Amino acid sequence: MQSKTPSESRSIMTDLVLPSETNPLNNLFGGELLARMDRAASISARRHSRRIVVTASVNHVAFNRAIPLGSVVTVEANVSRAFKSSMEIFIDVWIEDRESGRRTKANEAIYTFVAVDDTGAPVKVPALVPETDLEKERFDAALRRKQLSLVLAGKMQPKDATELKALFIDA
Ligand SMILES: CC(C)(COP(=O)(O)OP(=O)(O)OC[C@H]1O[C@@H](n2cnc3c(N)ncnc32)[C@H](O)[C@@H]1OP(=O)(O)O)[C@@H](O)C(=O)NCCC(=O)NCCS
């Protein structure tokens, strides 16, 4: 199976924030942003694997900055590391200044998707080869994020999370 680069799975979705998608402060409702990120991430996972993909976990979401009504929001996703059947997807969310057009990073998130066959059983995906410094940084940290996610889900014993433990021992 031929390896792929993060740019081959990049998906970019741009959309407005409409009144029905806001909270009482007139900012984008968190659940709406989660759904937009899930859609972009799912397209990335599909582009990388060319298989049916399902969301296995949402590993991290940082709502750092409120996104006001009327904003132009761009959700940009790509696979940051591929394991056997699972893929970590990194998502960056940008908002665009109406007058200058300058983009500001508003939020980010990390999702895990799994490629499955028609019966829902996990199947192998291509390896990922990072190219840029940022892609390499995200790739390197992905294994400990996977281990943390598995420990929190009760699918891995903390003692087996070697990469995660090393983070605290080396600190
Ligand atoms: C995701 C799913 C396919 C995993 O099935 P499973 O029986 O746990 O399969 P496995 O234990 O073989 O795990 C498959 C892969 O998922 C990874 N995985 C499973 N749960 C995970 C979690 N919480 N965090 C990170 N990775 C996880 C495993 O590490 C494994 O990765 P690898 O093959 O790259 O090593 C299964 O739980 C599922 O279908 N869930 C529902 C998905 C869905 O409907 N999502 C939409 C939300 S409504």
Automatic annotation (TrEMBL):
SUPFAM superfamilies: Thioesterase/thiol ester dehydrase-isomerase (SSF54637). InterPro entries: Cytosol_ACT, HOTDOG_ACOT, HotDog_dom_sf, Thioestr_dom. Its EC number is 3.1.2.20. Keywords: Hydrolase. Residues 7-119 form the HotDog ACOT-type domain. One of its GO terms (molecular function) is fatty acyl-CoA hydrolase activity. The keyword Protein biosynthesis does not apply. Pfam families: 4HBT (PF03061). Belongs to the acyl coenzyme A hydrolase family. This is Acyl-CoA thioesterase.
